[in-house]
From TrEMBL:
<dbReference type="GO" id="GO:0030488">
    <property type="term" value="P:tRNA methylation"/>
</dbReference>
<dbReference type="Pfam" id="PF14801">
    <property type="entry name" value="TrmI-like_N"/>
</dbReference>
<dbReference type="InterPro" id="IPR029063">
    <property type="entry name" value="SAM-dependent_MTases_sf"/>
</dbReference>
<dbReference type="InterPro" id="IPR014816">
    <property type="entry name" value="tRNA_MeTrfase_Gcd14"/>
</dbReference>
<protein>
    <submittedName>
        <fullName>tRNA (Adenine-N1)-methyltransferase</fullName>
    </submittedName>
</protein>
<dbReference type="InterPro" id="IPR049470">
    <property type="entry name" value="TRM61_C"/>
</dbReference>
<dbReference type="GO" id="GO:0160107">
    <property type="term" value="F:tRNA (adenine(58)-N1)-methyltransferase activity"/>
</dbReference>
<keyword id="KW-0819">tRNA processing</keyword>
<feature type="domain" description="tRNA (adenine(58)-N(1))-methyltransferase catalytic subunit TRM61 C-terminal">
    <location>
        <begin position="89"/>
        <end position="256"/>
    </location>
</feature>
<keyword id="KW-0808">Transferase</keyword>
<keyword id="KW-0489">Methyltransferase</keyword>
<dbReference type="GO" id="GO:0031515">
    <property type="term" value="C:tRNA (m1A) methyltransferase complex"/>
</dbReference>
<keyword id="KW-0949">S-adenosyl-L-methionine</keyword>
<dbReference type="Pfam" id="PF08704">
    <property type="entry name" value="GCD14"/>
</dbReference>
Length: 360
């Protein structure tokens, strides 16, 4: 039977938000004749101003996706809904987002499947969370833990804007992951764990407690120091398989007739990914094939690698990353909440400290 004739399709959360003519509250990506891209949230009577004319939102509302419209000065714009990769790079943010190339690797290498029970820590701006929610579907669960209230507000607003509502498969809790996850999940009840945090080695015991035998743990870290430390800590723990570490790089190509060459710019290193699987209780893992050799590391290197005593060592600033002002975080949180509400979602005010529970 042809798909168009079926009457029993189950409409997934967010699907209707991605189909049909443009409507009020939709995020729309307009591209001009010089390939410059702008993202709009459609409003009745809204206007998009540039130095070469005005494009009225009412020209797009009710039009099919892929329409081409002209502004008051005759400049043509191609209008499409943003793809996921476009959305996450243009949405309000507090923390640096996990890039689409890495999110795709996490979903694939972490084997995130429909119906999976996934726990995530370090929700940030919600970019990776959106990919996880799409992968688990309406029958799965993504439970995200976040320490910072501002990041939680931003993520919730962005997720609502993407799906048109906060998906029922999503839960959000404020607090320390290693403390709250063991309170809210039974031992061995979680299928996958995804951590994007500064010091994931602090969470080994919590992950080993809630992760089911055979379950996958994925870590995303920014530096080789973090990568080395978490892998050695996991090896020493003994409750997991031999870790695998990698990074992904994406290079575009310029194709114009017979002029075919790599682009001059590429999305290269953004972070390191590490995957490992939970062994059964009492099982002794098989170590990787490594040569055992004596190495004398300089004392200053060992001190830097084991800098637990220094509270500034494992912060974004301590790792050389640019910090975020409280003012910028509050503004991003308000923007994300407003964008989610424009898409039709009912969201609490930014700064309310609200969590997303099962009942929601």
């Amino acid at each position: 039977m042809k798909g168009a004739e079926r009457k029993d399709w189950i409409v997934a959360v967010g699907a209707e938000h991605r189909r049909g003519p443009f409507k009020v509250g939709d995020r729309v990506q307009v591209t001009d004749e010089r390939r410059r891209v702008h993202t709009l949230t459609l409003k009745e009577g809204g206007e998009f101003h540039t130095h070469v004319g005005v494009l009225f939102h009412d020209q797009l509302i009710g039009q099919p996706e892929g329409s081409v419209v002209e502004n008051t000065e005759g400049v043509r714009y191609q209008a499409l809904r943003p793809l996921l990769k476009d959305f996450v790079l243009s949405m309000p943010r507090g923390a640096t987002v996990v890039y689409p190339k890495d999110a795709g690797q996490i979903v694939t290498m972490g084997d995130i499947y429909p119906g999976a029970r996934v726990v995530e820590a370090g929700v940030g701006s919600g970019a990776l969370t959106i990919s996880l929610l799409r992968a688990v579907g309406d029958t799965g669960m993504v439970h995200s833990f976040e320490r910072r209230e501002e990041f939680a507000d931003i993520a919730r607003g962005n997720i609502a804007a993407m799906f048109g509502e906060v998906p029922p498969s999503f839960r959000l809790s404020l607090g320390d992951f290693q403390e709250r996850v063991v309170e809210e999940h039974e031992p061995g009840s979680v299928d996958r764990v995804v951590l994007d945090m500064l010091s994931p080695w602090e969470c080994i015991d919590a992950v080993a407690t809630v992760l089911a035998p055979g379950g996958v743990w994925v870590n995303y870290v920014a530096t080789v120091t973090q990568l080395s430390r978490v892998i050695e800590a996991i090896r020493e723990d003994g409750r997991f398989t031999e870790p695998e570490a990698f990074e992904s790089m994406v290079r575009g190509w310029h194709v114009e007739g017979l002029a075919v060459r790599p682009d001059h710019r590429m999305v290269a290193h953004t972070g390191f990914l590490m995957t490992v699987r939970r062994l059964a209780d009492g099982a002794v893992g098989i170590p990787g094939a490594r040569r055992v050799k004596e190495v004398n590391f300089p004392a200053e290197d060992v001190s830097a690698w084991t800098a637990d005593h220094d509270p500034e060592a494992w912060t974004h600033e301590g790792l050389g990353e640019r910090g975020l002002s409280a003012k910028k975080l509050r503004r991003s949180a308000r923007d994300a909440v407003a964008m989610g509400r424009a898409a039709g979602a009912e969201l609490p005010d930014a700064g309310s400290g609200a969590e997303v529970t099962k009942s929601e």
